[in-house]
């Protein structure tokens, strides 16, 4: 589905964003029902506090996701992040229009978006994808509370 944008480059209508992470972190997120925001420590919040998202989904390769999400950091940090499993799971979040308008596309050549604060999943359609041994992402169908 094509998304329409207004003059401020904000999506109109619901929009799907993805949060890529490790399988362990995805399990914790689904248990809590919240993607906790990145904060200033440890280089995880280069553009400030908030929940970092992308429009690049799990059909993209793990390397492509890692380069998109972490290529701006020193050296080949993206290779470390891919190797440490930070692209093994993806959470697809369908944002209703009123919340999608809060998401800021960052001034980057990469596809990086920032949601202010923690991102609560309880009132949004969301799905989890996990990569198999061959790197193919498959939807995880276990039901969470």
From TrEMBL:
Top-rank lineage group of the source organism: Eukaryota
Protein's name in the database: Uncharacterized protein
Source organism: Mizuhopecten yessoensis (Japanese scallop)
